[in-house]
Amino acid sequence: MFENTVKWLVFILAIYLAFNAVVSVNTPLKRKTYIVQMDRSAKPGYFTSHLEWYSSKVQSVLSKPEIEGQADEEDRIIYSYETAFHGVAAKLNDEEAERLEEEDGVVALFPETKYQLHTTRSPMFLGLEPEDSTSVWSEKVADHDVIVGVLDTGIFPESESFNDTGMSPVPTHWKGACETGRGFQKHHCNKKIVGARVFYRGYEAATGKINEQNEYKSPRDQDGHGTHTAATVAGSPVRGANLLGYAHGTARGMAPGARIAAYKVCWAGGCFSSDILSAVDRAVADGVNVLSISLGGGVSSYYRDSLSIAAFGSMEMGVFVSCSAGNGGPDPASLTNVSPWITTVGASTMDRDFPATARLGTGRTLSGVSLYEGRRILSTGKQYPLVYMGGNSSSLDPSSLCLEGTLNPRVVAGKIVICDRGISPRVEKGQVAKQAGAVGMILANTAANGEELVADCHLLPAVAVGEKEGKLIKSYASTSRNATATLAFLGTRLGIRPSPVVAAFSSRGPNLLTLEILKPDIVAPGVNILAAWTGELGPSSLPTDRRRVEFNILSGTSMSCPHVSGIAALLKARHPEWSPAAIKSALMTTAYVHDNTHHPLKDASVATPSTPFDHGAGHVNPMKALDPGLIYDLEPQDYFDFLCTQKLTPSQLKVFGKFANRSCRHSLANPGDLNYPSMSAVFPEDTSIKVLTLHRTVTNVGPPTSTYHVVISPFKGAAVKVEPEVLNFTRKNQKLSYRIIFTTKIRQTMPEFGGLVWKDGARKVRSPIAITWLTPLT
């Protein structure tokens, strides 16, 4: 009894410490960081610069010192924003913030927000690396000077993925810089890494000074995440890349001819909104064409989301913004980064796996995955004692989770221990088991993870298994007095079917902020992705891991986002005149919705077909995106008109409209009329409304003379009609409009999904459709 009490005390303490680490930065302090958005056009003429005016505004609201004559030594302004956003980040107490919000010229105040990271085969899987050397992505395309800004944990410049051999000089329009510091000097930038900057003032204001002995206060990446995402976007080809022998092949980014600008915004304690905003603002001023942002926070209203506002400003300047959807799946409505001017990327699997097996004493062999490669190898000819520390109840036990301090060495030493997923990182469970003397680990999925398997680079022989296999193994270990097992590792296997599959962890729709905007937009490879790694940390990311590798295999929407960022860079290279919306449209309308067995894409969490709330428009298809035929284009004013449908007050709309002095044109009958590549028809609670019409306009970017016919999938709950059914184009860039009329037949209790396709004989321009009937109010 006492032992169980101690276990639970350790368990509760672990949760308390983890929770405290998350919330401690939000503890009300005397001063907090606020992002202050200013009306740039309201500057009085007697100020020589906007910053001077901003500073004057901040100074005017500061509280008087408590002691007469005592000066306020602290510089209150930590950033000024001038390009994608206008204003400052300032340290203020609550009273000062309230006073500043009332000042003329102040558009809005945003409290500092903490964001989290959304943590070789993919180019060939995506069709970017055909076996022969002739490719549409020719050197002519690669030589276009496209620059991708990566907001992350920095970059490890020594990686071969950032070798600039054969690259042309840095484009003359580039205004970026190579900031130096410990472990990062001017020579670390080159023709591949054209810029590297750090942003830490918001982080330090919230958490205290960075300990420079433990952390590089420079663009150098000691976490690995930023190096991995940057290499996925635009890494140079590296032959013989592998992780401890796994996934051997040539590693290359999606756009190996593109340049990388690294903006380090994430530190040991997280990523803060004032730093992210400063990085976006600086990147746009530097001259990036694409922004890749593999991080996110919670969802808040458009006018309260500083990243959304900065992304809007970037889009106004012609910059394509790609963000990860989040790793909150398979829960519904778990998405982040849902603004329509952001491309929201979910994660899917590839046709490559890393199989491993657990053979039980009964002779039964169960399949799993692993990236283990080490000196400790279990003999396949020998059986080892098997132990599970959990009980028979469905509730999890701290010992079954293999949390720090919960495994009794007297019980697990010399045995293979079964650990349930949850609470602590997967590789950390293996470390706990190893420290307790275990010879191996079987990592069992719970209901939260289902059958989805993610391979890890464990510190001891370990195999991850799905929920069903996990239950079988745990039942055997709990009911057999002399349960035994052994583990085997089978290397790398290609041609896995079915693939792709939507990852269980990939965040899902619907988009509760605006149901009429279908999110995510698209899925891309995000499971077991090989890319460059930092030399500062082992592949498990654990401090005790002394191994050093040049490449690592990671999973998350953090990995899928840079795939789309890199493909967007390729499209920008081929079509420099395309707007961010045109690039997004090409990616979405050419995406595919069937796997390599020719069946509809599946959802890994339930092994049934996925829906547009899971996969958006489908799986990215770069080769088709090059020549989409038709695009759904949007101007910044169109997005502003969409915001005018969102019940925002004039002062809230001003957050988006001040830069270009925008006003509502009232051109959209409802939010679903935004000229978006996907379509979401939302019938209101009022059951008397049975007809709903959406409008779309397509631009011909294919052959000047072309004719498109429409095909639409049937729905149970509604009749869907398109007018006109044929679009006849006579010139390039010609725009033609059509409307989609939804008429309710039988209101459905769950959303219905389908698609609309325009075909010209050579091309298919596909849009996913969701129809939702809101439940009538009682």
From TrEMBL:
Supply the Pfam families for this chain.
Answer: fn3_6, Inhibitor_I9, PA, Peptidase_S8
Subcellular compartments: Secreted
User: Where the protein is mainly located, per its record?
Assistant: secreted
Question: InterPro entries from the xrefs?
Answer: PA_dom_sf (IPR046450), PA_domain (IPR003137), Peptidase_S8/S53_dom (IPR000209), Peptidase_S8/S53_dom_sf (IPR036852), Peptidase_S8_Ser-AS (IPR023828), Peptidase_S8_subtilisin-rel (IPR015500), Peptidases_S8_3 (IPR034197), S8pro/Inhibitor_I9 (IPR010259)
Specify the Peptidase S8/S53 domain's residue ranges.
144-599
The record's annotation in SUPFAM superfamilies points to: PA domain, Subtilisin-like
Question: Does Oxidoreductase appear among the keywords?
Answer: no
Q: Which residues form the Inhibitor I9 domain?
A: 33-118
Q: Which family does it belong to?
A: Belongs to the peptidase S8 family.
> What PANTHER family has UniProt attached to this entry?
PROPROTEIN CONVERTASE SUBTILISIN/KEXIN (PTHR10795)
Q: What's the protein name?
A: Subtilisin-like protease SBT1.3
Which organism is this entry from?
A: Salix suchowensis
